[in-house]
Known about the structure:
heterodimer; A: mainly alpha; B: mainly alpha; 10 helices
Amino acid sequence: MDAVTLAEISGNLxxxxxxxxxxxxxxGLGILIxxxxxxxxxxxxxxxxxxxxxxxxVAFVEMLAxxxxxxxxxxx
Amino acid sequence: xxxxxxxxxxxxxxxxxxxxxxxxxxxxPPTIGDFFPPAILFEGTWFQIDRIWIIRIxxxxxxxxxFVLAARRAKLVPGRFQAAIxxxxxxxxxxxxxxxxxxxxxxxxxxxxxxIFFSILAFNITSIVPGLNLAGTSRVGLPLLLALWVMMAxxxxxxxxxxxxxxxxxxLFPPVCKQMPLLALIITPIEAVQIFVVRPASLTIRLxxxxxxxxxxxxxCFTATEFFLLHASGAFKALSALTLAxxxxxxxxxxxxxxxxxxxxxxxxxxxIQMSLEEEH
Lengths: 76, 281
């Protein structure tokens, strides 16, 4: 095995791209949902409103991961 | 119980993935081609009927039948079936529409949001129904149609409340522009793209990509089970138990995702309508 093929990687680069694309939203969802739980624990009577606001936020954050997923299929 | 699960898996396998037959002994991962099955009727025309279309038609008939039956036989003291339907209807009305829009403004939008919620729920659930196995929403047409409906609804709501000029002014020039007029150069184009493109596009892509990803995960689990069990040698056969458990888990997860996507879609539809009803936002 010579020096050129030593570091050869086979497979699809898209999977790495999608892996990277999930990192940010993953962190974002953790912060978002964690903070909502914190808020609900402090003020249980506001949990209904907190929950629906959280889901709207989740939808926006999750969108980024899904764009990465779509891009993986589009740019082959 | 186990016999029922085994029978169910046996029903899932053949319909899920036709391509694995052609691949011989090799493992064929799912592709995007799974969502474009060969046409059955009217090939090449605009009204081409393939498996997804049959699934959509069947689901529509089932959905309408369920609600017609529930409405026909509605009694003052509801039975179990009627109570379940009423529970879901009340959930959409109270937890989604009234929660976001309030009782006064929300009243008008209850039928629309309810329709959207139940259509998406029904078309999502088909991805785990044995024999159907493909979500009706896993191709762009249906999510796009629903997203455009939502877009028209929030435009209509805004224009009716404030007039065309008022609505555009409220949504394109937020109050901060009065204090710092130069900021409008940045904010106005962003807001314009937001209300014309980003909102419907993100609604479409969210639903579509979730259903595609879910189906691919399901196919991956069940084809891996088949591959390990039938074509792999020796100790690798044991892995099929793991992938089978994974497949059952993903199926339950899909049920959750199907419900969650219906909830999020209707919640965002209500939120967008609420944003265009506000005078200043």
